[in-house]
């Protein structure tokens, strides 16, 4: 196992261990953070105005932000490293597409995603993990916001 894949396995295992509790605690979070909702609305408006196509929410967790962006009119799917998070997302939002995957190895053709969103903390300070495929998958000049909540982006 490579160092990167070992790191990803450890990260996925950690999120799997807290997924159910996290989903319960964060269920109504967006209702309490108007600035985040405004950023997400602006992102959705930008993607729609650009006619950019499908959007990948990277690190989608239990899917609540993916569902919110869908409700704002985006063609969106979620990707998360944690299989348990993806199971919760699929159970809660069966009408949306969710995939287990890593943002450094997205199963999206080059330049085929209309945008990519990462909300929350990007942990670990690993530039090889935190954006390689995100840039590859997005359309040229496609939107890719990084919303910072609850702490610094590392």
UniProtKB/TrEMBL annotation:
InterPro entries: Methyltransf_25, SAM-dependent_MTases_sf
SUPFAM superfamilies assigned: S-adenosyl-L-methionine-dependent methyltransferases
Annotated ranges, domain Methyltransferase: 55-111
Keyword Methyltransferase tagged: yes
GO MF annotations in UniProt: methyltransferase activity
GO biological process, one term: methylation
Chain positions covered by the region annotation Disordered: 116-154
Keyword terms of this UniProt record: Methyltransferase, Transferase
Protein name: Methyltransferase domain-containing protein
Biological source species: Nonomuraea solani
């Amino acid at each position: 196992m490579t160092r990167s894949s070992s790191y990803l396995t450890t990260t996925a295992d950690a999120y799997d261990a807290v997924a159910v509790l996290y989903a319960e605690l964060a269920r109504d979070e967006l209702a309490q953070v108007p600035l985040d909702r405004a950023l997400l609305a602006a992102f959705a408006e930008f993607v729609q105005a650009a006619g950019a196509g499908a959007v990948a929410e990277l690190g989608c967790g239990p899917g609540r932000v993916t569902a919110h962006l869908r409700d704002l009119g985006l063609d969106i799917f979620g990707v998360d490293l944690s299989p348990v998070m993806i199971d919760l997302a699929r159970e809660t939002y069966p009408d949306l597409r969710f995939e287990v995957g890593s943002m450094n190895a997205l199963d999206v053709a080059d330049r085929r995603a209309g945008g990519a969103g990462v909300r929350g903390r990007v942990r670990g300070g690993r530039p090889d993990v935190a954006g390689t495929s995100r840039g590859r998958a997005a359309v040229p000049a496609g939107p890719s916001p990084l919303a910072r909540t609850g702490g610094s982006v590392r």
